[in-house]
Structure formats: C-alpha cells, structure tokens
Amino acid sequence: MFERVVGHLQSSYGYSLEDAERLVSGYYEKFTDQNFCDKYDTMAQTMDFFGHIESRGMADRVHFYEGLKHDADEAAFIEWQQKNGM
Q: In this predicted model, what pLDDT tens digit does every residue of 26-36 receive, in sequence order?
C-alpha cells in the first residue's frame, strides 16, 4: 500500500518520489503513535484502519496532514474533502 499511496501523492499532488515517501512515513509515524493521537483526542490508526481506506484516500489524508501541515482534526479533514469535491 505504501507504494500506491506514494504514487497517488506524486500523480495527484505533484510531490517528488522522495517527498512523497517522507510524507507517508511521517504520517504513519504520527498517526500510529498513541501519545500523538491522545494529544489530539483521536484514535491511533491500525492496520485494520489502513485496510479500510483505499490508497487514494490515504494519499488525501497524507497530503492534508503532512503536506499541508494541518493538525490531527478529522472534522477539518472532512470539511477540506467536501470543499474540494472528494
């Protein structure tokens, strides 16, 4: 899945391979860390979560949180998706 998310970040958002890989790694590190998630009152993401979100959806999440540098706020992410017709 890592490779597919990286590919979507490149094709949809114009990131270089290196930047896309860095963003995906940063997202995974943060959103699987219970302390980080507790800070933002969000659930830590598990392999089950990643299995339910398709690679395109994960690329959108990575772009929003890591690329655009938003805090972990699910409501803000959903609003951004709706605003951008996703």
A: 999 999 999 99
**For residues 14, 17, 20 and 24, what is the CA-based torsion angle, rounded to 10 degrees?**
150
Dist CA 64 CA 38 (whole Å):
19
Contact 59, 12 (CB under 8 A): yes
Which spans in the chain are helix H?
Answer: 2-13, 17-31, 34-39, 47-52, 55-62, 74-83
pTM of the model: 0.92
Residues 16, 8: Cα–Cα separation, whole Å: 11
d(CA 42, CA 5): 22
